[in-house]
C-alpha cells in the first residue's frame, strides 16, 4: 500500500522540475523576460550541450553486461502493442491516418524518460528504478529512434500520388490527363537511400552520439 511518505517523496522529486517548467513558460508567455532570439539561444544551448551531457552522464553509468532484458522485452512488447492498435485504427477508422498514427506513437512511447523518469522512479524505487529508466532510454535512443526516423523519412519522401490506379505506369514515368497536361508521378527512393538519410540525421542529433559514446564508455568501464 502506498503511504503518505511515498507520496511526499514523489512530490519532492517532481516539484523542482515542474517549478522550472512553469517559470520558463511564464517568463516567455506572460512576463516577457526573454525575447524570441534569447529563447532560440537557450534552446540551442539545451539541445547541443545540456541534454547530450545529461544523457551521457546517465548512459555511461549503466552496466551493459547486467541489463534487465525481461524489463526491456516488456517495454518492447508494449510499444509493439501500441503500433498494432494504431495500424488497426488507421485502416479501420474513417478518422484514422498513418500520419496521425506515427505522431500518436511518438507522443505515447517516445518520452523523455531521463528528465522525468529518473527523479520520479528514484523517489519511488531508489537506484533500481533509475537503472531501469536508463536501460530503456538507451534502447529507445539506439533502436526506436532509428525506426521512427526511418518511418518519417519513408512517409516524407516515399509518398506516391496515385492519379488513376488503372492507368498508372511505372515509377518515374510521366502521366497525361485527358487534356494532354503532364502529371508527374513521384518515385519511391530506394531503401538504402532512406537509410542513408536516417543515419545522417542521427549523426547530426547530439543526443544520439551522446548515447552511443555513453554506451561505449559503459562497456569499457564495466569490462
UniProtKB/TrEMBL annotation:
Membrane topology annotation: Multi-pass membrane protein
One MF term in the entry's GO annotations: auxin efflux transmembrane transporter activity
Top-level division of the source organism's lineage: Eukaryota
Listed name of the protein: PIN-like protein
Record's subcellular location: Membrane
UniProt-listed GO biological process terms: auxin polar transport; auxin-activated signaling pathway
Residue ranges crossing the lipid bilayer per the database entry: 6-25, 45-62, 68-90, 97-120, 132-152
Xref: PANTHER family: AUXIN EFFLUX CARRIER COMPONENT 1B-RELATED, AUXIN EFFLUX CARRIER COMPONENT 5
Family classification: Belongs to the auxin efflux carrier (TC 2.A.69.1) family.
Species, as recorded: Kalanchoe fedtschenkoi
Keywords: Auxin signaling pathway, Membrane, Transmembrane, Transmembrane helix, Transport
The keyword Transmembrane helix appears for this protein: yes
CC terms in the record's Gene Ontology section: endoplasmic reticulum; plasma membrane
